[in-house]
Amino acid sequence: MEKAEKKNKNETRSIRIQSPFLLFITGLLSRLSFIFISIRMVFFLNWPYIALATVVSSIFWIIFSVFDQLLFFSPVFVFYLPDDAVMGFILSNITAVLMGIVVSMNVYVFRHSKGLKITAASFFSGSTLSVLSSTCASCSSLGFLLVSTFGGLGVTASTFLSNYQIPLRIVSVALLIWALYSVSNKLTTSCRIKSNV
Amino acid sequence: MMSKFIVVLCGMATITTSLGFAYFFLSPSHFEMMNPMRKANAQETPAERAQENNKTSTVQNGFSPISPGASGQIPKQPGNIVNLNLSPQSLIKTGSPLLGSASAPITIVEFGDFQCKFCDRFAKETEPMINATYIQTGKANMIFKNFVTHGPDSVTAGMGALCANDQGKFWNFYETLYKNQGEENSGWANANNSKNFASSILGINTKEFNSCLDSNKHKPVIDSDNALAISSGFQGTPTFVIEKKDGSSKETLLGAYPFPSFQAIIDKKLTG
Questions:
Q1: What is the extent of the structural domain holding B135?
Q2: Residues of A with Cβ-Cβ distance to B124 under 8 angstroms
Q3: B32-77 pLDDT tens trace
Q4: Which pLDDT band holds residue A195 (cuts at 50, 70, 90)?
Q5: What's the pLDDT at B24?
Q6: Between these two residues, B240 and A31, which has the higher pLDDT value?
Q7: What is the CATH number of the domain that holds B194?
Q8: A55 in a domain, yes or no?
Q9: Is B116 part of a structural domain of the chain?
Q10: Per-residue confidence at A185, pLDDT binned at 50, 70, 90?
């Protein structure tokens, strides 16, 4: 009898210990499922939005590749990926794809949901930061212009952008994921059942 | 149907615009357009060029890559005449570091900064291929000029490289610096570290190198190189000038262009 009670207590404790973690996991999974539902809602056999996302992603991919000095149009068309640029290239690909999805979803929200505002703040902060970080200000034309225009401040800015290029890109990916979450939240709000009802 | 058409049309328009932007931004003709002064310089007489040079130095008074933040000027020291001539022979005569045969038909002049990440990429990815294909075969040579835009460590690294050049070890030092490149202005290329880099190079006289670096012997040369780059209208690093032995048929590239780009230009010049 005592043994059975002890066993029950242990089980209860283990459930109590696990419950916040489980709550977090279930919450995360439900949020992820809402993101996937909203992506499916916007893109499933919806060719204009697929085209828009592809175009936006391609444009940003070209811009990032040009700024990262991976893509050259003249004197010959060349794309090359040196070892030092692999991490940045992976992050810029993620950013470009996220930008395409977020822009398309915002357009969908704008066209289909009256009274809903697009998630401009998170989108623009994410995209601006990613473009800024990809320019590696100190090495391109911008770097020299920064230095010649702002002197010491220009050196500081270019040094910061150059040294923290990868962390800045990770932040910009995070901001775009936040933008994606916000827009999918808006699209799926009406489908959710409130837990306290 | 209409919305599909509009989206496709907008997409095509934006792709064309971005491609145009990228082409404009990267092509050497952009460089010419952005620097009309440089284009004009090519047709000037030496006297006019000298006059223009004085004017340029005045315009650039606000720029001080060597001592950032200070109200710097490009110093004009006695005996340190700013040389606007980019022809290989005059650059070799003034003691610029040279890789390969002095009589090679094509010369690549690199304006670089040892702290620049893209210069590092060029040194590790493209330069070895150019070296193996054109420099070792006597078809081209390469000259290095300092263009320090990244802060104080760049100046020390540049001076160290020129001190190594005094002993014929410039390219060893160049390789060592890029192998050990650190975060910008973190002190990775300060005097002490530069001395350590030099001591790791076989056959270098460290005593001589250290005294050369401590005396700032090559500071005027760095200033002169910088003035040359600025007056030539260069805006960033690495900038490459690819030209024939006699200084004609100059082409400029701004950025860490890969080997095929250099190959296309050099082959065209060799056959043309």
A1: 83-271
A2: 82-84
A3: 333 333 333 444 444 444 444 333 332 232 233 333 333 333 333 3
A4: low
A5: 42
A6: B240
A7: 3.40.30.10
A8: yes
A9: yes
A10: confident
Q: How many residues does chain B have?
A: 272
Say how many domains are in chain A. 1
In contact, A67 and B118? CB cutoff 8 Å:
no
The nearest alpha carbon in chain A to B68 belongs to A152
Decide if B184 is inside a domain: yes
* Domain span holding position A88: 2-191
How many structural domains comprise chain B?
A: 1
Q: How many CB atoms lie within 10 A of CB A152?
A: 14
Question: Rounded to an integer, what distance in angstroms lies between the CA atom of residue B9 and that of residue B15?
Answer: 10
CA distance linking residue A80 with residue B145, whole number of Å: 26
Contact list, B70 vs chain A (CB under 8 Å): 151-152
> Residue range A38-53: average pLDDT?
88
Q: Residue B137 is which amino acid? A: T
Q: B245, B140 in Cβ contact below 8 A?
A: no
Considering the domain boundaries, does residue A20 fall inside one?
A: yes
Residues 154-213 of chain B with CB under 8 A from chain A are: 183-186
Pairs of residues, one from chain A and one from chain B, whose beta carbons lie less than 8 Å apart:
140
Q: Does the beta carbon of B61 lie under 8 angstroms from any beta carbon of chain A?
A: no
Closest chain B CA to residue A73? B23
pLDDT per position as a tens digit, A78-123:
999 999 899 989 998 998 999 899 888 888 887 876 655 555 665 6
Q: Classify residue B141 as left (phi > 0), alpha (psi -120 to 50) or beta.
A: beta
Report the chain B residue with the minimal C-alpha distance to residue A141: B236
